[in-house]
Write a structure and sequence with these properties.
The protein is an alpha+beta fold. About 55% of the residues lie in helices and about 10% in strands. Bound molecules: ligand LOHRUJSQ and flavin-adenine dinucleotide. Belongs to the acyl-CoA oxidase family.
Length: about 675
């Protein structure tokens, strides 16, 4: 371990002695091998030694303007570091390296204003440009000669992309597009980095040529002068105002007054406008311009896992240090981690972080394989990827937000301190449930796919692997409950199949009673969201079990045991959460449920001695955790006091407001 090992809180030190497995083995599993762990640590060393992570004043004590300026400073120096030393170490394009994403959190407790540059601007250039356009913009973007964002959402529309109002009208005489914001609600709103930082932007606008609207397309737009950074004439741009999190990401607004850009600034990999204004539609699939969103949804599953692992590390370490109440009269106060209710709050967080991380890796591989199919001209696998990335983004970000909040509950009053870092982690993840497609909207997209899959299976057609359980269900295969991994997964698939069947029936019944398809669908949407969530649960459970089995094949017995205990905990937890559904759609009995409850409670006891070691195995350095409660040495109270003493509010013994207001009030002179 690279972490400092002096002055460790004695309770935490004892916890580490109880560990039954080799922590390094689990670290290697999640990094993807020993080599990757070593590369990641090298990257972390370089960034930590650079001195960039240091703030003179804690971020939470800065004004919004100071926070933004501090974040810009760090982003610039971090970018320089990425281009130099880090490039040498990674040897690959930076933005895909998970280690870079991890260590970025050592610099930014909140968000880098450059997040959207690497998160969406560069991926859009890669996915949407012709090879000529790529040659122009990609090197400049990677070299940070231009800095960009992604402006799709408007004041009036975010979810419904087809309803966007910004127009891009082609003028064949000058071979230019004229960008225009026709109404108040057409102003671009929310784009990260747009407020103050970026000079270029991908703009999503309704394309008009030869008097016809062809729907939304993507355009590369320079919005600020590269030298003075002033908005270009015809551009109205600014920051949208304080929000729950993302404080240093300068989310912005943008309006166009007949602003002209060259024809070549339409991103033309899939659809083109020729010089004379002729529109050439995408040859293969109508939704390829939505590809960056699919990419980000895939990466957000990883974000859910990573941020949850940070929160649960903080809460478990704190729970080992914190002593409160008594279990029996006159006995010493126990560590709060010894309360089964505390274990119930936290151990599911550890298991979920594992489940989401392995699912994220699997989804990333699926994404790469679909991209490779698409490069060969085959878009057949795209609908399944869209359905998977939609539901996994929705469910993983939503579960992670709930579990992170549970970690805060688990830390009592001190968890409410910004210095615990839990409020920052929560506000970041809470936003991921909304952006890049709101929870409900994305589950409804998956539901479309599931209903279609049902209809295909009914017609005797083969369906894709993630929904093959539908065919089994239609063949009349009855579910018989077994409390094994496979048995539980089969039962969750039976729940999903049962719910999809009911949705299909509801839609058909409603149509029989005279409604059209749209109304029948609309009235069934509560059930459809529920069915898509059930499908997603079955995907996560299956992926988690399969991946742990695959990845621990050559592990030591002790690692196999502890990793499998977490899998069983996860399966038991969700069985107990979903007893109503399982009683309805599987053959589970009350006796089985009693067994699962006892098994779950026993597992909490089995995992308890390894709890601290399991969070140590996330290998998160103190500089990444930024937490007074979760540091490796467990010196919680020392840090809280030190930070209180250094609070700028305590710099003067008497605040001037006493003389101005309180004293006159006390003396009746106000
Ligand atoms: C670490 C990185 C951090 C990055 C920070 C990011 C910060 C945040 C950035 C943002 O939020 S950017 C803005 C993101 N905005 C959204 O996500 C908007 C969500 N809305 C949509 O995606 C779409 O409007 C919609 C809900 C999918 C509906 O689109 P549309 O009305 O055009 O389609 P439908 O009629 O519903 O469906 C038609 C057909 O198309 C299929 N489809 C839809 N989307 C896709 C897709 N992305 N890929 C492939 N296919 C897609 C859909 O399933 C339908 O198929 P059929 O059922 O007809 O077969
Ligand atoms: C921190 C943050 C950063 C962001 N960054 C960017 C960015 O960089 N670039 C960018 O373009 N955008 C960005 N966004 C915008 C984001 O993508 C949208 O806010 C998001 O897609 C949700 O859209 P909306 O705000 O229009 O919500 P709405 O669609 O108005 O949703 C409001 C509610 O209505 C419900 N609803 C809407 N339509 C339906 C329907 N058809 N059926 C059932 N229920 C429905 C939703 O489920 C939700 O509960 C960002 C947002 C946030 C919070």
């Amino acid at each position: 371990m690279v972490l400092k090992k002096y002055n460790i809180n004695p309770d935490l030190a004892l916890e580490r002695q109880k560990c039954t497995f080799d922590i390094e083995e689990i670290i290697n599993i999640f990094d993807g091998g020993k080599e990757k762990t070593s590369q990641r640590r090298k990257i972390e060393d370089v960034v930590l030694k650079s001195g960039l992570c240091h703030d003179d004043v804690p971020e939470e004590c800065m004004s919004l303007k100071e926070r933004y300026e501090n974040a810009v400073r760090k982003s610039c120096f971090f970018s320089k570091l990425m281009k130099t030393e880090l490039q040498e170490i990674t040897g690959i394009e930076d933005f895909e390296t998970p280690a870079i994403r991890r260590i970025a959190d050592a610099l930014f407790k909140d968000i880098s204003p450059f997040l959207l540059h690497l998160g969406m601007f560069v991926p859009t250039i890669i996915g949407q440009c012709t090879s000529e356009q790529l040659m122009i913009w990609l090197p400049k973007a990677l070299d940070l000669q231009i800095i960009g964002g992604y402006a799709q959402t408007e004041l009036g529309h975010g979810t419904f992309i087809r309803g966007l109002e910004t127009t891009a009208t082609y003028d064949a005489d000058t071979e230019e597009f004229v960008l225009h914001t026709p109404t108040l609600t057409a102003h671009k709103w929310w784009a990260g980095g747009l407020g103050k930082t970026i000079n270029h932007c991908i703009v999503v606008a309704q394309l008009y040529t030869k008097g016809v609207c062809y729907g939304t397309h993507l355009f590369m737009v320079q919005i600020r002068d590269l030298d003075t950074h002033m908005p270009l004439p015809g551009i109205k741009v600014g920051e949208i105002g304080p929000r729950m999190g993302f404080s240093s990401a300068d989310n912005g607004f943008l309006g166009f007054n007949n602003f002209r850009i060259p024809r070549n600034n339409m991103l033309m990999k899939h659809a083109q406008v020729q010089k004379d204004g002729t529109y050439v539609k995408p040859a293969r699939h109508g939704k390829l311009t939505y590809q960056t969103m699919v990419f980000v949804r895939v990466t957000l599953v990883n974000e859910a896992a990573f941020n949850l692992s940070k929160a649960v590390t903080i809460a478990v370490r704190y729970s080992a240090v914190r002593r409160q109440s008594e279990m029996r009269p006159n006995e010493p106060e126990p560590q709060i981690l010894d309360y089964p209710t505390q274990q119930h709050k936290l151990f599911i967080g550890i298991a979920t972080a594992h489940a989401f991380q392995l699912t994220a890796n699997w989804l990333w591989n699926t994404f790469k394989s679909v991209l490779s199919d698409m490069k060969k001209g085959d878009v057949g696998t795209l609908p399944e990827l869209h359905a998977l990335s939609s539901c996994l983004k929705a469910v993983c970000t939503s579960d992670a937000a709930l579990l992170i909040e549970q970690c805060r509950y688990a830390c009592g009053g001190h968890g409410y301190m910004l210095s615990s870092n839990l409020p920052y982690i929560y506000s970041f993840v809470a936003a991921t449930r909304t952006y890049e497609g709101d929870y409900t909207i994305l589950l409804l997209q998956t539901a479309r796919f599931l209903v279609k899959a049902w209809e295909q299976a009914e017609a005797g057609k083969t369906v894709t692997p993630t929904v093959s359980y539908i065919s089994r269900s239609l063949k009349g295969e009855k579910n018989s409950w077994r409390s094994t991994d496979e048995g539980i997964i089969k039962s969750f698939q039976a729940v999903a199949a049962g719910k999809i069947a009911l949705c299909v029936k509801s839609i058909r019944d409603r149509m029989k009673s005279g409604l059209d398809y749209e109304d029948a669908w609309l009235l069934t949407t509560v059930q459809l969201v529920d069915a898509a969530e059930a499908h997603c649960r079955s995907v996560i459970l299956e992926t988690y079990c399969n991946e742990v089995r695959r990845l621990t094949k050559s592990s030591s017995d002790n690692v196999k045991i502890v990793m499998h205990q977490l899998v069983t905990l996860y399966l038991s937890y969700w069985t107990l959460q979903r007893t109503g559904d399982l009683l309805r759609y599987s053959s589970i009995s009350e006796k089985d449920i009693d067994f699962m409850q006892r098994q779950y409670e026993e597992l909490l006891q089995h995992i308890r001695p390894n709890a601290v070691a399991l969070v140590d195995a996330f290998d998160l350095r103190d500089e990444i955790l930024h937490s007074s409660l979760g540091a490796y040495d467990g010196r919680v109270y020392e840090r809280l006091m030190e930070q209180a003493e250094n609070n700028p509010m305590n710099a003067e013994p008497v605040n001037q407001s006493f003389h101005k207001y309180i004293k006159p009030l006390l003396q009746g002179k106000l």
